[in-house]
Specification:
The complex is a heterodimer.
Chain A: H1 10-27, E1 38-39, E2 54-55, H2 60-110, H3 116-144
Antiparallel strand pairs in A: 1-2
Helix pairs in contact in A: 2-3
Chain B: H1 2-41, E1 49-51, H2 60-77, H3 86-101, H4 111-128, H5 132-142, E2 148-150, H6 153-169, H7 172-193
The chains are: A mainly alpha, B mainly alpha.
C-alpha cells in the first residue's frame, strides 16, 4: 500500500512561519495584561479600542471597595424586587378573598331575587371582584419582567379569610 | 325641718310626674323603634365607617397586654396539635374568652385590632362547634354598621365571619350586609396598595 505525502517547498514553509510570528506580535497588546478593568457605560478619554469606562484600581482596597458597593447595589435591587413581590402578593390575596366573599354574597342575593338591595350589593361585589382581579393581573404582569422570581401569576385562591 | 320635708315631697312629686310622663313617651318611642328595626332587619345594611389605627409606643401596661394576648393565642394554638376533641375545643374557647376579658390599658389603640382578632377566633370556634348564634351575638355588636371599625384586614376577616354566622342562623340581611361591608373594606385596602 502506497501513501503519498504532500511536500511543500521549503521557502513556502519559512514564509508561513515568518508571517505567523508577525501576525501574533501585531495582534497582541503588551499593555493588555497590565491594563486595569473598567466599568462599562462610563466615559474613557484614552484613545484606542480599549474598554470604555472609568479606571478602577486592582489593588485589594480598591477591589474591596468595589465589592462592597456592588453588594450594596444588589441588595437595594433585591429589596425593591421583594417589595414589588410582596405588594403583588397582597393585592392578589385580597383579590381572591373579595371574589370568594362575592360568591357567598350573590348566593344570598339569589334567594331574594325581588329585593333590589340584595341585587345591588351583589352587582357591586361582582364589579369589585372584577376590578381586584384586573389589579392583581396588572401587578403581576408589570413586575414579571422586573423579577425573575415573580410571585404567583394567577390570583391565588387562598382561604376565605381576607 | 318642715321646709325640708316640703322640698323633698315636691321633688318626689315632680320626679313622679316626670317618670309617668316619660313612661308614655318611652312606650311610643319603643314601638316606633321596633317597627324601624323590623324594617331594617329585612334589608341588608352595608354602611361602613372606618378609622385608621395609628401605631403607638406602648406603655408598660400596653406591652403587658400585648404579651398576654400573645400568650392566649399560643394557648389556643397548643391543643390544635391534639385530636380535635370536645375537651380541646373547650380549652381553646376558654382561653379566648379569657383573652377577651382582659382589661384594655389606656393609650393602646392597637388593642381594638387585637380584640377583634380574639373575637374572630372565638367566633370561628363557635361556628365550627355548631354555635353560630353565639358567634353572631359576639361579633354583631363589635361590628355594628353604626360603629366605626378599624381599617384593617382583621376587621374584614371578622365581617366575613359575621356573615358566615348569620348565614347559618338564617339572618340573610345581616349576612349580606356583613359580606358587602367586608368587600368594601377589602376594596379600600386594595386601593391603598395600588
Amino acid at each position: 500500500m502506497m501513501t503519498r505525502v504532500v511536500s511543500l517547498p521549503r521557502t513556502s514553509v519559512l514564509a508561513g512561519v515568518l508571517w505567523g510570528v508577525v501576525a501574533v506580535t501585531t495582534g497582541c497588546d503588551s499593555q493588555a495584561g497590565a491594563r486595569p478593568t473598567v466599568t462599562p457605560g462610563t466615559q474613557d478619554t484614552r484613545e484606542g479600542a480599549g474598554p470604555v469606562g472609568v479606571q478602577e484600581g486592582d489593588s485589594v482596597p480598591e477591589l474591596q471597595e468595589r465589592l462592597e458597593r456592588l453588594s450594596g447595589e444588589q441588595a437595594a435591587r433585591m429589596d425593591d424586587a421583594m417589595d414589588d413581590t410582596q405588594a403583588c402578593h397582597d393585592l392578589c390575596s385580597l383579590s381572591a378573598s373579595i371574589c370568594e366573599v362575592q360568591v357567598k354574597l350573590c348566593d344570598i342575593a339569589d334567594r331574594h331575587p325581588q329585593e333590589g338591595s340584595y341585587q345591588e350589593l351583589c352587582r357591586e361585589a361582582q364589579q369589585e371582584c372584577q376590578e381586584a382581579q384586573t389589579s392583581c393581573e396588572g401587578c403581576v404582569g408589570e413586575h414579571a419582567g422586573d423579577t425573575a422570581d415573580a410571585p404567583a401569576t394567577q390570583p391565588a385562591p387562598e382561604s376565605v379569610n381576607p | 325641718m318642715s321646709s325640708n320635708c316640703t322640698y323633698v315631697a315636691t321633688l318626689a312629686a315632680l320626679l313622679g310626674l316626670a317618670v309617668v310622663g316619660c313612661d308614655d313617651n318611652a312606650g311610643s318611642q319603643a314601638e316606633v323603634a321596633g317597627v324601624v328595626e323590623a324594617e331594617e332587619a329585612s334589608t341588608p345594611d352595608a354602611r361602613l365607617q372606618t378609622h385608621e389605627i395609628v401605631p403607638s409606643t406602648p406603655t408598660a401596661d400596653g406591652l403587658a397586654y400585648i404579651r398576654a394576648v400573645a400568650a392566649i393565642h399560643a394557648e389556643a394554638d397548643a391543643p390544635a396539635d391534639a385530636p380535635a376533641d370536645a375537651e380541646g375545643s373547650a380549652q381553646r374557647v376558654a382561653a379566648l374568652q379569657r383573652g377577651l376579658a382582659l382589661p384594655v390599658p389606656e393609650g393602646l389603640p392597637e388593642a381594638e385590632i387585637l380584640r377583634l382578632g380574639l373575637a374572630t377566633r372565638l367566633a370561628s370556634a363557635w361556628i365550627e362547634g355548631g354555635e353560630a348564634q353565639r358567634a353572631q351575638d359576639l361579633l354583631a355588636p363589635m361590628l355594628a354598621p353604626s360603629r366605626s371599625v378599624p381599617l384593617d384586614r382583621s376587621s374584614a376577616e371578622a365581617l366575613v365571619l359575621l356573615g358566615d354566622a348569620a348565614t347559618r342562623t338564617g339572618d340573610d340581611a345581616l349576612a349580606a350586609g356583613s359580606y358587602g361591608r367586608s368587600i368594601r373594606m377589602m376594596s379600600i385596602l386594595r386601593q391603598e396598595l395600588e
